[in-house]
Design a protein that fits this description.
alpha/beta, about 35% helix, two-stranded antiparallel sheet, 12 helices
């Protein structure tokens, strides 16, 4: 049975609304003017974002998803492949068991590119990491890596959709939407799903990366702006008094409730009513949540806010910690802008690109893990590092370019997780000596999504929604849980 199908005992929520919309409207308004709206609602009238019970006993209550736009090079970051240095400048030969666009790339002139970075072993687990991540290396025993993840497309747009929504086509709900739909959120004064994108611009596919798709509109991610009001149109117009605003809100709510009573099946209308209520409460909660002025100087230095290179993503990571403290269920952080110099899409200069990108994120990500642990929040927060694809061990060129880069590789995505019930130091999957593809059966991205849901206490087969005549879920045909990385 889906969470959507579960009903409370006694009279149904929509039936109750349809019979008593006017009285409930007044009660709802009164509740909005107090700290805890939920304490003043009948059980059958709970918000669409009210907390729900986990299917599985899991520690994680929150998820922070770190998305690196552009395709992080796995053999220059988290996969030590010394054979590539031996093959540097030479083509790959032999039966490489690849298909599709990757096979096409190999059929054209190409040369292997050995990593220009040194690798060392770190932590009690002896995990190999590139020199580009010295801060993350100190936290390596907290991380569980997944190697050789496969997506169904090697182009940025579809592959970004696939990793962030479970489908390579537009129109599907994002991972955060599914998690919020399945679990609700504990803070009814803030959105349950927050998005903090790169201050330099939007990612590939824009807002579709955090869209609700066919789920009710209340489950769409809410973008926090880098400047000005944290949420667009959050503050009331100048000259509108608090008393006038309350009266206006009362009228809108009563009209919406009357409309809903005649259309109890309309989830969009129900979501709109919930959005009005949330916006009213956020006028106080949201500005405080994004105000970093009270953070001590030691924390600002920890996240790199005193350094122009790390300040951008450092602020994003610090805000993510603050969202967890305030009960936000899912926070999506995006590093990288579209497909260009500010993304991880390093076709023509992987050495220069990887140095630039890693310097921007290494300290802030390590700081986030350290800060969460120090505050006792890491055990209840699942942290996920992802990109939309991996890179090839070669560049398509008949001879070695002066500044070689790497091509797209939908067979080589590398991700890691930490926090919650993640087994630190564990590994799932393994790539071949060239970091070209998985050795053995590849791990599909739906398996990763199933594992994320599991670590959040949700069974992917139970988090479903009926749309267009069929039962939909994040993992589509279902995913296999990666038990190797679960404690």
């Amino acid at each position: 049975m889906s969470i959507r199908d579960q009903s409370s005992q006694g009279i149904g929520r929509r039936d109750f609304l349809s019979r008593t919309w006017n009285g409930i409207g007044a009660l709802g308004l009164a509740g909005l003017l107090q700290e805890d709206l939920q304490a003043h609602r009948e059980p059958g009238l709970s918000s669409p974002l009210a907390p729900k019970i986990q299917h599985l006993p899991r520690k994680a209550k929150h998820c922070i998803f770190l998305f690196m736009q552009g395709g992080v090079s796995q053999m220059d970051s988290f996969e030590h492949k010394p054979m590539l240095r031996e093959l540097h400048g030479k083509p790959l030969t032999g039966d490489l068991s690849v298909k599709g666009e990757l096979q096409g790339r190999l059929s054209f002139p190409h040369v292997c590119v050995g990593s220009p970075f040194e690798f060392k072993q770190h932590g009690d687990t002896g995990r190999w990491l590139s020199e580009l991540f010295p801060n993350l290396a100190r936290r390596v025993d907290d991380l569980a890596f997944i190697h050789g993840i496969k997506t169904d497309n090697q182009n940025h747009g579809p592959s970004t959709y696939h990793v962030t929504t479970g489908s390579q086509f537009p129109g599907s709900p994002s991972v955060g939407s599914w998690i919020q739909y399945g679990l609700g959120t504990s803070n009814q004064n803030m959105p349950g799903y927050i998005v903090i994108q790169d201050p330099r611009g939007a990612p590939c596919n824009g807002a579709a990366v955090w869209a609700n798709g066919y789920l009710p509109a209340v489950h769409q991610g809410t973008l926090l702006r880098d400047q000005g009001s944290p949420i667009l149109n959050l503050q009331p117009p100048k000259g509108l008094s608090a008393t006038h605003q309350r009266e206006e809100f009362r009228l809108i709510r009563n009209l919406n409730q009357r409309h809903l009573a005649q259309r109890p099946w309309d989830s969009e209308l129900e979501s709109r009513i919930a959005a009005y209520e949330l916006a009213f409460r956020m006028q106080t909660a949201a500005p405080e949540a994004v105000d970093l002025s009270g953070e001590p100087e030691s924390i600002r230095r920890l996240y790199g806010l005193d350094n122009d290179t790390t300040a951008g993503f450092g602020r994003q990571c610090l805000l993510a910690r603050r969202m967890v403290e305030r009960g936000v269920r899912y926070t999506l952080l995006i590093h990288g802008v579209q497909i260009g110099s500010h993304s991880w899409d390093d076709h023509s200069n992987v050495e220069g690109g990887m140095r630039k990108h890693s310097q921007e994120v290494d300290q802030p990500v390590a700081a986030l893990l350290e800060d969460l642990e120090h505050r006792g929040l890491l055990d209840e927060t699942l942290v996920v590092w992802a990109s939309e694809m991996g890179r090839t061990p070669f560049v398509n060129s008949p001879t070695m370019p002066k500044t070689p880069g790497r091509e797209h590789n939908s067979y080589g995505l590398c991700m890691w997780m930490a926090g919650g019930d993640v087994k630190g130091g564990a590994t799932a999957g393994e790539t071949d000596p060239f970091s070209l593809r998985s050795e053995g059966e590849p791990i599909h991205i739906r398996d990763v999504h199933a594992t994320i849901l599991n670590l959040m206490g949700l069974e992917d087969e139970k988090v479903t929604y009926r749309h267009a005549g069929r039962i939909r879920k994040l993992t589509d045909i279902g995913g296999h849980i990666l038990h190797n990385i679960i404690a």
